[in-house]
Amino acid sequence: MTTADHTAPEQPTGRDRPVTVAVRGLTKTYGHGAAEVAAVREVDLDVHAGEVLLVMGPSGSGKTTLLLMLGALLRPTAGSIVVTGRDRRRVEIATTLERELPALRANTFGFIFQDYALLDALTATENIAVAANIAGIKGTAANRRARALLDRVGLAHRAAARPSQMSGGEQQRVSVARALANDPPVLLADEPTANLDASRGRDLSRLLRQLADEDDRSIVIVSHDNRLREVADRVLWLEDGRFKTLAGLVVDPVCRMQVEPTGPHVDWEGRTLWFCSEGCRTEFTADPQRFVAGGD
Amino acid sequence: MLGVASALLLVLVLRGIFAGAIDQVTSYIRTSPATVFVSQEGVKTMHMSASALPPDTVERVRSVPGVTWASPIGFASGSVSGPQGRQLSYLIGYDTRTGRGGPARLEVGRAPGTGEAVLDEQAADGLGVHLGDTLTVLGTRLSLVGLSSGGSSITNTTVFVARTEFTNIRGDTDSYLLVGTEPTAAANVADRISAALPGVTTQTREEFATSEARIVTDMSADLLRLMSTIGLLIALAVIALGLMTATLNRIREYAVLKALGATTIRLAGSITVQVLWTVALASLLATTFAQLLSWTLPLLAPAVSITITSTALYQTTLGALAVGLLAALWPLRRIATLDAATAFRETR
């Protein structure tokens, strides 16, 4: 059933590639004394080159905190994160000086945001060129790179469009292209499909898979979206700041969350169904057909 | 950008109206063929002044080396009235044979003779008088035989009469002496006249115009100056608030850029460049519109003159730039301490 082991459970990735991100004993706590809250607890994790790693878990489980620490945006309380750059140089993020973090981020990571986070006043090309500039690519070279990346994500024809003139799917593709501007060994994506409909979400997940395969790039995605499982090499379940064995979890038929089979449940047509809360169980019992008919 | 441009336009137009008013006030002096003006000792202006020269002044000035001609005018302040009202006015009596001291431009009609006058066309419109009509100047009824231009200002208008008629109205006194010199010799000749005639005040045309502008500015244009100052303060406040708000509205974008690896120095540079571009473009736009207004507004309201000076442009743009940079960079401390991780936590 469930395990309290803090180490990421091993699942077959089908890969034997070098480790790009090595995490050991990673811990993040907020507050002090009685008010201390552990968002991430002694997590160990290896992310391989070319691997798509999907981290799932309920809200408040520590997913975003983990992502921020991996991206050198948040200092861990304890533990280490070693990232290997394109030049094979290994950097320990946790001990890197504060003033060196911007350059580390600019050269090592690509970020994909839930709400795309494009600069409204700039065109698609300019949004990508800005990221290239920050990474040290200047002038026409930055624009050339931006156009090449737009072409790669299938948006060459939208080069001059501003975010307000693009659909959500297009904006997220521009956001992906921007994340590639510095040719990072690691892409970090926070709920990248949350604002996309099913079709566009599927397109985006395939694009991420393609980027990992073609460039040998490590991609870490934190998401609630089950659709992303089909492109992930590994799916990890984070709950209460620890990884848990996904195989021991079941899906709440109402909210589709992964839940431990220890809480509210009902026996229905010879099966036991588990829920994340009493609310979901009540909703289910009021109209079971509504939830089971959609497939479990 | 449009907000900044509007604010700059407000300042430029207010300052342009102020400068235009001063231009109008000094128009008679600036358009005079004389390069040197001689007045009673201690009198440096025409506005709010009375000047009477000693009788031998004209001959003595004519004998000063470098003087090519010297022509006296009679000058008095009073009012001119017509069927539709009354206006404050200068009355100038000049030698109609040479035309020196008369109107710079006679738009319609002819030079005045005895019992006749030339009036500025704007004032004629306001007073409801036309060529051939009678108007009253300092209690004397005169027939209007010509319309001049450039003689009306925010303070008064100008009536021109023949010197003989002026003598009839105010007596035979030379008020000012207009002196012609080689253009480049004006200052030297003025010095020579001062040395030769210690009992009079001698000024070059530029000095006389400056004195005139100063007294009008000090006495008559306080309201315009106040309006211009208030306009400037409002405009600077608008620019400051606009650019500061623009910076603060982009806090999330700055967090995103920091997450991507931008340093605070780079962001400050980016903000500075944005302000420079914004103020430059806004200044260009405001100048263009102000220039258009300076051409079109006098067609609709002839009494209003807008003069856009390079000094006004320079000062307004620099002021906007200074205030804009200060306001835009004011939130820099917040940007410097901005947690890049908020790029992930905040949504629009």
Description:
In chain A, the strands form 4 sheets. Chain A has a 6-stranded mixed sheet. A 4-stranded antiparallel sheet of chain A has the order 2-1-4-5, with helices on one face. In chain A, strands 11-12 form a two-stranded antiparallel ribbon. In chain A, a hairpin with a 6-residue loop joins β11 and β12. Chain A has 8 helices and 14 strands. In chain A, α3 (124-134) packs across α4 (139-152) and α5 packs parallel to α6. Chain A folds into 2 domains: 19-248, P-loop containing nucleotide triphosphate hydrolases (Rossmann fold), CATH 3.40.50.300; 250-292, no CATH class. Chain A has helices spanning 63-70, 101-108, 124-134, 139-152, 168-179, 198-215, 278-286, 288-292, and strands at residues 19-30, 37-48, 52-56, 78-84, 90-92, 109-112, 186-190, 218-222, 234-239, 242-244, 250-251, 258-259, 265-268, 271-274. With 296 residues, chain A is an alpha/beta fold. With 348 residues, chain B is α+β, with helices and mostly antiparallel strands. Chain B has 2 domains: 2-22 and 221-345, no CATH class; 31-219, no CATH class. Chain B has 13 helices and 10 strands. In chain B, strands 2-3-8-5-7-6 form a 6-stranded mixed beta barrel. In chain B, α1 packs across α10. Chain B is elongated, with a radius of gyration of 28 Å. Chain B starts with a helix and ends with a helix. The model of chain B has no long low-confidence stretch (mean pLDDT 87). Chain A binds chain B through residues 64, 67-68, 71, 73-74, 102-107, 111, 113-115, 117, 119-120, 130-131, 134-135, 178, 182, 190, and chain B through 252-253, 256-263, 266, 339-341, 343-345, 347-348.
